Amino acid sequence: MVDVMSMSFDDIITESSRLNIGSVILPPGEDFGIKSDDEDVYEDESLECDAGFRSVIVVDNLPVVPQKKFDRLEAVVRRRFSRFGVIKEKGVWMPVEEDTGKTRGYCFIEYNTPQENLQRWLVDEKGRDQFVIRSGSDTEFSTESFVQWSPLGTYLAMVHRQNAAVWGGAFGFNQLMRYVHPQVKLIDFSPGEKYLVTCSSHELSQPCDTHRVVLNIFDVRTGNVMKEFKESADEFAFGETGGFTGVSWPVFRWSGGNEDKYFARLGKNVISVYETKTFNLIDTKSIKVENVMDSCWSPTDSIIALFVPELGGGNQPARVSLFQIPSKVELRQKNLFSVNDCKMHWQSNGEYLVVKVDRYTKTKKNTYTGFELFRIKERDIPIETFELDNKNDKVISFAWEPKGHRFAVIHGDNPRPDVSFYSVKGGKVSKLTTLKQKQANALFWSPGGCFIILAGLKGFNGQLEFYNVDELVTIATAEHFMATNVEWDPTGRYVATSVTSVHEMENGFNIWTLNGKLLYHIPKEHFFQFAWRPRPASLLSPEKEEEILKNLKKYSKKYEREDQDISVLLSEQEREKRKRLKEEWEMWVNEWKSYHEEQMLRDVEASDVEDDKQVEVEETLDVTEEILPDVSVF
């Protein structure tokens, strides 16, 4: 295995035990940004040299070879590392031992740019987003089950019989790393893309055996296994099941943000929190929480929420607790009574946590729903309790507005349920509006907020309503018959609906604008998967984004001019295309006319040539009439 490290020169000296700076001999004419101690060195101030190692990586653990094998080793290194970017013409340098003439087991590689460039797709001049589809049996890239984007869109992961692999790169897709795990079935990235979790389940060798589950945590960049878990499936069956053989998936829940500092797993009466610095338990012990049933991290902070159901037939109430990690200090707790079920929903900025609580009535024959709102960023984390107008309504779906202060709820027992919108701004939950009797059973907010799709999937046959929550108006209604999935692109400009192979008919996908205009209808037989490529968070501050939104009309004029120029260009291109096709047609017609005329001329010339033939002619020269005498015969 070849390890790759992007390092400064000081890091090279510190980290690489093989590298002795005193023994490094630089190639003629190259100083790698190291200034000479010679005071007489001539410096031309008109030249600007690239002083530094931003475009240089160190490759260690290379074989030590004699001079006659230099070219072969360099070719192998170039072939492997050119997948990550364009290497300069003389960009591979292997230091050599003076005594033996052999390489020292490491080399320097210099690329054209500092980062060749796993995020090149983000600087598309037209701001186009990418997506991946999986259909039929013919594939551009080989995978044996599904594909999965990493959370920031840097990698595309694929699953094979003996390993998982990630693909990416500046130009097209190249395989960047493989993670050996036989019979891998499930994968999961950490939020910051630093780690990849793989999972497999192995068949029983004896009837009395339990299913064995193997989980590996890999370093995404190096492919090294950082932690391995081998236990029975029962040990991973806590919480909601979403994997196989009863395994709760994902087994490991990662802490909020992109630092990937902590991950947690539920166990029997414990929650185990690991730190990725050592991949050991924090303080070498788990947090003991009797009968803990579910957990979820804040999307932005190292705060984990735990749900514990009732114990002792209701003598000990259910509760939701918030713990700060790594201190394990309980920040807030809420006791809940007569609980049938509980679901926790974090807002994307980690400002709010809503707990949906289904409670039994006094007779224990029915249930009703209430909500507990935790205001995480406020002092002492105040909790507000609220209910629907009709608390007996069944809650079908709940969804927070991304980065916002609003949420939507589908509720009701009728075939056409109601949809209500609420705001938590101003220190109190307030209802904005209720839409009556909608053909909807799923909610899909735009990543930019404001717009939402009320979707009627499965039994509602793909009914779609595009709704503007700022204006509280319906923008458009549409239908994608038999639709099974709805997915917004990461910018909130487009939305894709698809019919997967769970249905035998109507397979394929549609792409719509945010205001419900159909752009593309792409039928695909045996359609399995559609997934937009995620984008990392914006580099702009919230203040700058707000400023841009306020001045959107000023920016829109620029883009309208660009759109007009593109439209004119497309019209010119269309005219040129038509002109070219017409010229090609006329040329083809003239060629056939010429051919036809030549053929006719050859036929005429052939008819003027007569061959010699022997002909017999009969001619009457004279006619004589003679009367014969009557002759009798006796």
UniProtKB/TrEMBL annotation:
GO molecular function, one term: translation initiation factor activity
Family to which the UniProt record says this protein belongs: Belongs to the eIF-3 subunit B family.
Domain RRM, chain residue ranges per copy: 55-116
Any GO BP: formation of cytoplasmic translation initiation complex
Keyword field: Cytoplasm, Initiation factor, Protein biosynthesis, RNA-binding
Protein name: Eukaryotic translation initiation factor 3 subunit B
Biological role: RNA-binding component of the eukaryotic translation initiation factor 3 (eIF-3) complex, which is involved in protein synthesis of a specialized repertoire of mRNAs and, together with other initiation factors, stimulates binding of mRNA and methionyl-tRNAi to the 40S ribosome. The eIF-3 complex specifically targets and initiates translation of a subset of mRNAs involved in cell proliferation.
Subunit structure: Component of the eukaryotic translation initiation factor 3 (eIF-3) complex.
Subcellular location: Cytoplasm
Species annotation: Ambrosia artemisiifolia (Common ragweed)
Any one GO cellular component localisation term in the record: eukaryotic 43S preinitiation complex
InterPro entries (UniProt xref): EIF3B, eIF3B_RRM, Nucleotide-bd_a/b_plait_sf, RBD_domain_sf, RRM_dom, TIF_beta_prop-like, WD40/YVTN_repeat-like_dom_sf
